Amino acid sequence: MLRSLFASVLPNTLATAVRPSVQTPLRAASNALVSESRGWSQVWQGQQRWRSQLAPKRTKYRKAHKGRVSLPTGGSTKGTTLQLGSFGLRLLESTRLTAKQLTSAEVAVKRKIKPVKGAECWMRVFPDVPVCVKGNETRMGKGKGAFEYWACRVPMGRVVFEVGGGGIREEIAKEALRLASAKLPVQTEFISINSLPRLGSTLVSKATVTQTGASKAEIPVDAIPEGPADTALAGATAP
């Protein structure tokens, strides 16, 4: 009886005595890897991209400078006219739009134009700048704050949303873009395919700029000559 009891207990006792000395280094290494992976996942958890979110798939750096919204002063009107749709929403101020604001505006537009078969909505900007924020009443220094949200810098005169397709009427498009404008923290204007490009706060006629050869000229709305090439002025709205 006692012999069988010692025979069953002794191997387990030896195994428990030997196991820590053999498995401790392996267990320590595995614990280190697990803790390192957890720390890495916690660092990037804030910038994790979900399918329903507006966020870049990958960036070169996790954080970026705050930066300023550039104002095109060289005479370029790129991005101020429609490219995909028949109607659009153009900004009258320079600002930084967040991914949440753009998502809310896009959802509002798509919900309004959903009954129109074939109508589509296009977003001309994309939030690709990581914005970092520090807590309130935090002392200066100690590095940059933690990642908070994605945003994009949009200069004045840039088209943000376009609507078109399916023979959508102007009344429906204007109402849909009005709902989107209510979600944005800046002043906007409704434009059509015949609207003039915008250079800052000034409307510019392509025909007039081509005739004068002034690549950097700012032409006021009142100075645009009347003619067949400038009949599109009726579709533009001054700020």
Automatic annotation (TrEMBL):
GO terms for biological process: mitochondrial translation. Belongs to the universal ribosomal protein uL16 family. The lineage of its organism: Eukaryota, Fungi, Dikarya, Basidiomycota, Agaricomycotina. Pfam families: Ribosomal_L16. One of its GO terms (molecular function) is rRNA binding. It comes from the Eukaryota. This is 50S ribosomal protein L16. InterPro entries: Ribosomal_uL16, Ribosomal_uL16_bact-type, Ribosomal_uL16_CS, Ribosomal_uL16_dom, Ribosomal_uL16_sf. GO terms for cellular component: mitochondrial large ribosomal subunit. The keyword Protein transport does not apply. Keywords: Ribonucleoprotein, Ribosomal protein. PANTHER family: 50S/60S RIBOSOMAL PROTEIN L16 (PTHR12220), LARGE RIBOSOMAL SUBUNIT PROTEIN UL16M (PTHR12220:SF13).
